[in-house]
Here is the input.
Amino acid sequence: MEKWLKFNKIDVFKTEWNSSELVKEITSKGKKKGNLTPTTFSLLHATDFADRFERNILPLLRAGYFVLADRYVYTAYARDVTRGCNYKWVRKVYDFALKPDITFYFKTPIDIAIDRILSGRPKLKYYEAGMDLDFSKDIYESYRIFQSKIISQYDAMSKQENFTIIDASLDIPKQQSVMREKVMKLLTKKLVKVVKEK
Here is the structure.
């Protein structure tokens, strides 16, 4: 999507989950020591997001950029609630975040999602697999349970938050085609709005 937008002469900035330099090192140390509680985990991710929101997302939106977020606050809602954090509390922590113009939810059957993750890395990490939650002593079974619960959270949010659902079992070109069509409609509406306001 980023390359396509740039090709179409649209100013675009991409931001990724858990990428703030301010928090990255602290999160990494906490994970290595294995002493992150669900609340600590949630607050670290919220700090990361707040830093990126204040330094990158908001200023660039104000400057007219199209900001792509590889995961957004909905990632926190799904993961933190699955980890046992209070739903209303998590929402309150992120209530400063702007609602996106469009949110893509790449809906994937659990078996396909797991196959894709496991084919791309040698082994699962402790927190990634939800081992801190005692779902199972087996890391792969724990990961399956953890991801199934996260998917359930996303499914519950999808109607409430009006997600644009993409069938992620389709091949990449087909997924891109669907996304581009939706984004082009959004850009056309925005352009018409700007012209009318002038």
Q: What stands out?
A: Strands lie at 12-16, 66-70, 104-107, 164-167.
